[in-house]
Design a protein that fits this description.
mainly alpha
Length: about 60
């Protein structure tokens, strides 16, 4: 009786972790697709993309 309960718990834990793994994989793939789409959109020749440095000054001012 006890080993059946252990088997049930291990199976439940296994499927729960498998579900979390697939969920994480789905989120990562979705983020990668968004990142690739944003990069492709920013590199189109018709669009002007303003590149701002995170520390507040541009490369031209640094020289």
């Amino acid at each position: 009786m006890e080993w059946e309960l252990n088997l049930l718990l291990y199976l439940a834990l296994f499927f729960f972790l498998l579900f979390l793994l697939f969920l994480l994989l789905f989120v990562v793939i979705k983020q990668l697709k968004n990142s690739v789409a944003n990069t492709a959109g920013a590199l189109q020749p018709g669009r002007l993309s303003v590149h701002r440095e995170p520390w507040g000054f541009s490369r031209e001012q640094a020289v």
